[in-house]
Structure formats: C-alpha cells, structure tokens
Amino acid sequence: MRVLLFFISIFLSCHLFSQSWPIGSIITVCEGETVTIRAQMPGATSHLWSTGATTCTITVTPTITTTYIVQIVINGQTIVDSSTVYVIQVDAVENDTICSGETAFLHATGGLFYRWYPETGLSDPTSNLVSVTTDASGTYYCDITSMGPNLIRNGDFELGNTDFVSQYLYNNTSLWNEGTYMVGTNPQTYHSGFSPCQDHTTGTGNFMIINGSIQPNTTIWQQVIQIVPNTDYIFSCWAQTVAAGNEAQLQFKINNTLIGPVFICSDTVCHWTQFYTIWNSGTTTNATISIVNQNQEAGGNDFAIDDVFFSELKTCSDSVLVIVQNLQVDLGSDIVVCEGEGIQMEVLNPLEGANYIWVFGNTGATIQGPSTTHSYSISSATVENTGYYIVQGNISGCEMEVDTVEVVVHPNSEVDFTAQINCIHNASVFTNLSTGAVNYLWNFGDGGISNLMHPTYVFEKEGDYEVHLTASSQFGCEGSISQTVVVRPCEYHIYVPNTITPGQKDGLNDYLCLPPETASQIITFELFIVNRWGEVIYYTVDPTFMWDGKVNGKLECNTTYSYRMRVGFPYSKVKQFVGKIHVL
Question: Is the pLDDT of residue 5 over 70?
Fold first, then answer.
C-alpha cells in the first residue's frame, strides 16, 4: 500500500492594509493586518494607552484578539474607553511535497466559505479540502471568508427579556394566547401543550419561547446595531418547534426589507435547526435587524429561537506551495509467523543517505527512526504485533512514497489436559482441554506416544511419568504442557462372610463363596478350612468355590471353623487372609 505524505512550511498572504477606526469600535482584521485606533476628543490634554503609548492614536498589528484601553484626560477628568481588535486566523495548512503524477490534498481552516485558485485541476474550488493531481510544482491560493464577533447583545437570551424588542406580547406566566412570548428554560412551564424542550446554547439556559401570531411580517425579535458600510454580514439564528403541527415560517428582515428565503422550523419537536443569510450593508451605518413570522394559519405555529447571531464577514488569504518529486519505497511481501518467532522487515531498495521512519499503523505510533536504518526486527513476536507496518522515507528534503507490509502473528495453541490415571496394566484416560488446535502429539514418558485428541494409555510399570502434550493450530503454531502422573499397582479387596446358614433351609446364605466379579480376576488361589483341632476339613484352589458347610457330607450346625486363604491378582503380590466362619 502506498500513502502520500507532506512535510511543509507556510507563508501567509492576507490582504495587508492599514485600517483606521475610532475608539469604541469593534474591529475585525486578518492576522497580520495593521489597524489604527483613534482617540481624538475635543479638549483632550493627555492620552495613556494600555500599550504604553501617549499619543491620541495608536497603530497596532495584533496576532491574537486584543483589547486596547485608553485613558483620556479632558478638563482634569479622566475618561476610559476601549476597542477590541478581533484577529481572524486562517490557515491553508502547509506546503506539500509529492511524487510526480500523484495527488496533493490542500486543506484550509478557520473559515465559513472558501475559494481556491487557480482552479485548474482542483477537485472542488469552494471546499476547505481540495485535491489536485499534478506533475508540476505550483502555488495555490485560498480566499477564506470567516465570521467576526457576534454584534448581537443577549443573542443567547441568558440575560432574559432585555436588549431586544418584539411586536409580540411578553407574558411571563402563560403562553396560551397567540402572539405572546416568554424568555425561559422550559416551554411546558408556560403552556401545558408545549414540549419540555431545552435551550440550544447549553441545554439548561434561557431561550425565547413563542406562541405564534397569524399576522404575516409580525416582528418576533428586533435589535438595532452599528455596522460598517459596504461590508458583508451573516445573519443567523437557531429555531425549533415546541408543539407539533403547523410549523413556524420565519424570515429575516433588515432595515424594513425582507432578506433571504422563508425558513420553516423542523416538524420534529425540540429539534434545533440553524438558518442564516448573507447581507451587504451598502452605504448604511446602522441596521435594524429583525426576525419575522410569515405563518398565516391558525393553530400550531408554536416555536422557539436561540443564539441569534450577526457578524461581519471577513476574507483573508493564504497559499500553499506544492513541490513535486518522485521516489519510491518497497517493503516486499507480507509476513506470516507464529507467536514467539522472530520477524525481520526491511526496505528492499534502500537509498544511500535516506532517512526512514517506521510506524505501527494500528496505533499510528512511531516505533523506529528517523534514521538511516532501513530494517526493523522483532525478536519474539506476540499477537499484539499483528498489523500494518509503514515506512516513510526522506532524502534531501524529498518525501518518498510510503509502503506498507502486513504482519500476521498467529497465536500458539492454548494447551491443557486432565488425566484419570489407573493402576498398571489398566487403561488411563487423558482428556484434552486445548483450544485453537487441530493436531496433537502425546508423549507418555515411557516411550509411548499418541496423536489422538483424547487418548487412553496403559502403563506397564509402576512409576512417576512426565506426560507431555504438544498441540498445533491450523497454521502450525504450537503450544505444549507437561504434567507428572503417578502409576501404582492395582489394589484389590476380598470380602469373605463370617457366617453361613445352610441349616435354616431358606435358600439364603447357604454357601461360603467369593463374589463372582472378584473371583474372575484371581489368578492364584488356595483355601484351607480347619476345625478347632486344626484338621483340614475343606481345601480348594478354585476361586469360584462354593462350600455348603458340610464335613464329609454331613452338616454340622452351630459350629465355628477357621480359614486361611491365599489370593493372587494380576500384577499384584499374593496376599493371605485368615478368619473364622460360623455355620448355623
């Protein structure tokens, strides 16, 4: 991917000329303009300005909005007056260095209207952001029209019902009658049919709430202001509907002349909409500015206005120099690795003496440079290193084309397992809990292996074994884990009853025998039953024996015998059990 970057310096070309204004004026200038402020008054004997000057006039070139205060002594009395010079700061951003045949983007700020020239090749000469594709260097100029300070007093109504007049009747308790208004914070306070809308300025302050009249050209709001002849002004306000239906139709009026189109409030209740128009003062020095209602239908026509604004439009100029160069950067192919592996990125066509800046595109942060190093490495990659890496090159003040390489770091598999370990020569069960894996390799620590997901395994010998599981993802990225398992010989339990009851002839508990599930596992067996004189009365090597209590075919009840039993299970030592058996 190739991106065009610009490194720039600016030169300002406002229309520079000196203006002369009397003290007390509100003055608007472009940055860099010079203005003379006059404090000439009959009978004045001395002047002292906030700048330290003692003349009756001062000439200043402020870089920021500044208030100049003068103390004038007349007949021994001191009079204090001031003028504020509002400085409009515009910017056509910076000079651009581009490669031949590519696109430069020119961006102007600080204005309301824009006009770029020469217009040839520009995408939109009236936009603050324009583009031009060129193979030749050139200068582009922009006339930027901005607004000065608001000349309206109490335009946001925060001072209440003051500094303006209206042909509507002021009523601070109720707006049920048409042709009435109130300055407040909630329309519903004065009319239950109105919505509880908020003001535009802060959301909690005052605004003008109106129950509209059906008389056209009725003045809603009016104020007289001092203006400069032959000057363009912008007149604007914000309006909203406070009760649905028959929306207000408003229009601006200056010096008793309607200007601009009729604007209709939004049919969405409590939705502020801005309206404005442009007006030239001609030869007049004072303006009676008004907002009138043109709605002639009864019912509805309930609305509010806020943030009335009237300001001089001032045009300042700036310029941008586009310098065309032609250089390239090549980072080669994209890179795919597994977590923990090393990454090496480098410019494949480095230029001697060039400086390079490496940027991690995901965050925009510079990770290396500027320096002559044309490579960047990561010793052990993590998933967080996935993203786009951008190289910006610069040589001899010329910006190279930008190139990008995509790095994908695949995570290693998260590996875990549990083991249900059985005794030797019996199957142990291994449950794989790994995630992000498709291939598995088990090493059971005794030379045995498996590639099943959930294997079973038989350990042949007693011991402690380190079981190792390696799991890999579809991208071949591995993870592993080891656990120690303990394998011991099997333990078996023998149950021998101490009483049999063949004499009760109830068919229950008539035999001395071992449970079938136990007998089936025995591989070595020997049983001796002796009487109280130590004589062997019963002997067998069959673990599935069933002795009915008889001696030489005769049942002797209420007799106690002793037994000695030797039992051997698979892969287990032979154990001996002794006890007594009662025959009832």
Answer: no
